[in-house]
Amino acid sequence: MLALIQRVSRAQVDVEGETVGRIGPGLLALVCAEPGDDDARVVRMAEKLLAYRVFGDDNGRMNLSLTDVGGQLLLVSQFTLAADTGSGLRPSFSTAAAPAEAERIYQQLVLECAKRHAPGVETGRFRAHMEVSLVNDGPVTFLLRT
């Protein structure tokens, strides 16, 4: 499982002109399921998303997590993270989980994060054409893998 996380001041997802997810300060996580992802990897990713220290403490050092600062979380499915770009000029997506399995894993991650994070979780819409807008705070961006 992959997650490209960005510390944001705000972010939102629109589908066909409708806002389906919106957060203020927190994390935007673009999430990709890979073949072989299981319940343990989902739990581990939820733990990492909520505990990864990317927010500044009183000294400006990245020592605080999303949970520590009470930030919001926006999870967006993004199968293109698993693209194989090693050869040619067109990406291959054979390293991403099949759509039905990916959706199950993504929904499981949403539920796991919501269960653990009191401020709640906003989402995009799986398999929809989404317009994601954000203000990256820093910029701060990390690729997490479980």
From TrEMBL:
Task: Map motif Gly-cisPro motif, important for rejection of L-amino acids onto the chain.
Answer: 138-139
Q: Where in the cell is it found?
A: Cytoplasm
Query: Which Gene Ontology cellular component annotation is one that this UniProt entry carries?
Result: cytoplasm
Q: Name one GO molecular function term.
A: Ser(Gly)-tRNA(Ala) hydrolase activity
Cite the Pfam families for this sequence: Tyr_Deacylase
Q: Which NCBIfam families match?
A: D-aminoacyl-tRNA deacylase
Give the record's family classification: Belongs to the DTD family.
Assembly: Homodimer.
Give the protein name, as stated in the record: D-aminoacyl-tRNA deacylase
* Natural source organism: Solilutibacter tolerans
